[in-house]
Amino acid sequence: HGVLRYGLARGTRAGNVAARVMYDPAVVADPYAAYEHLRGQARLVSNGLVRSAHDHDLVAAVLRSPDVVTIGGFRPPPLLRGLTRLAGRGPAGPVEKPSLLAVDGLDHARMRKIVIRSFSAKAVARLRTRTEAIAADLLDGLEAAGARGGADLVRDYAGLLPATVIAEMLGAPTDMRAQFLHWGAGAAFSLDPGMVYPDFRRSEKDIAEFERWMRGHVERVRRDPVPGTILADLVAASDEQGALDDTELVGVAMLLLAAGFETTVNLIGNAVVLLLADPDQLALLREHPEHWENAVDEALRLESPVQRTARAVVRDTEVAGEQLRAGQLVGLVLAAANRDPRVFEDPARFDVTRANAAAHLAFSGGPHYCLGAGLARMEAEVALRALLDRFPDLALDGPPRRRRTRVLRGYDAMPVRLRG
Ligand code: HEM
């Protein structure tokens, strides 16, 4: 790990900062100054392995370019093959092949088409009432935890809400939510470049267990499908029309379940911290609840739950004025693009009425644009409004604890006081 860390920096100042963004815990705690520095250096900053983009124009254009593929879907040149082999040895995790996030072109279109209907605006609208009921239930639990002397917003609410919604949608047992959250947290480490060895071991173990469970569950669904759930539809489409082979089926199911909560928990936690730190914005929302939808996008923009993604270039091309060459890896720092001052005025300011807040790239763009964007927005709005309606005097009870993950940005503990 140490060799990799310093081998990447290549001695240039920008390269050093680029490497620190990925590896230095202090920069991970607050990466935004580093992003700004890098955006000012060059449109593409190399750390020796990856060229990273930090401006909105370039990040958006690379995501939409037909000349790039996802990293998981990329067959690296021989020189890099050793490195990538070091990374994934165990069973495929939620973002490795054959997950949607690691498949491109026609295979990707085929797989995405099967699930897209379940996440349409209409499908999401139908889930709102049920999500409100889940929120109300979980708030009872939060209150009970508070009465016992320790309410934790992440543990008791922000994680459970999206986990319950996605488990019900898929037809996965909701009484396994805590187990799903545990596996998801382990799998999340595998997104980070240069993770430390104990995290690597934990992620491999959790991914293996998660995969084994999902394989068994798919078999149970095959024998005894619950009509109207996504997994029952997936199994039927695969068995009757050959839509997905078994490995693909398990991969898609794992991604849907993990993506369904692993990011939204961060959005809810990040938004709570932003709102509690800014009573004027909160007061404005109380008076004008019609801004809630935009407030969720503003939180996504300012504290993006997925800070970065990457693509591999498959043929020489020019994108937004930059020359890219076949075989290059391009880091796309979504969270930096979302603070690009050329697109967002006074970008570090939290402004729930910002006119173009939704122009953020927090859900990525192009063919892999987040399938659950509408669902996540709805869940966050429901979760935040229900929380602040029930507990108008909600306050942090000590500093929240940041997750150590770097690609995913959020909190893993947030003690709160429910009443003033
Ligand atoms: C893809 C972010 C919630 C399902 C993505 C990507 C991002 C993202 C950035 C694309 C990564 C890339 O381009 O490389 C988020 C954020 C969320 C969220 C910030 C919450 C705040 C959800 C939810 C689901 C979901 C609730 C529901 C299952 C997916 C799926 C993909 C995806 C299936 C892969 C799509 C594809 O490759 O075609 N998400 N996501 N996401 N997301 Fe989300």
Descriptive account of the structure:
This protein has 420 residues and is an alpha+beta fold. It contains 19 helices and twelve strands. The chain has a five-stranded mixed sheet, sandwiched between helices. Strand 6 (317-319) and strand 7 (322-324) form a beta hairpin. The longest helix has 27 residues, at 121-147. Mean pLDDT is 89; it is low at 1-11 and 82-89. Protoporphyrin IX containing FE binds at residues 70, 100-101, 112, 162, 166, 255-256, 259-260, 263-264, 267, 305-306, 309, 362-364, 368, 370-372, 375-376. Keywords: Heme, Iron, Metal-binding, Monooxygenase, Oxidoreductase. Belongs to the cytochrome P450 family.
Q: What ligand molecules are bound, each kind once?
A: protoporphyrin IX containing FE
Biggest pleated sheet: 5 strands, mixed
Which structural class do you get from the secondary structure elements? alpha+beta
Principal-axes geometry comes out as: globular
Provide the gyration radius in Å: 21 Å
CATH superfamily of the domain at 90-306 and 366-417: Cytochrome P450
Q: Helical proportion? A: 55-70%
Oligomer: single chain
Total E-strand runs: 12
Beta-strand fraction estimate: 5-15%
The CATH architecture of the domain at 90-306 and 366-417 comes to Orthogonal Bundle
Low-confidence stretches: 1-11, 82-89
Biggest sheet strand order reads 1-2-8-5-3
Mean pLDDT across the residues is 89
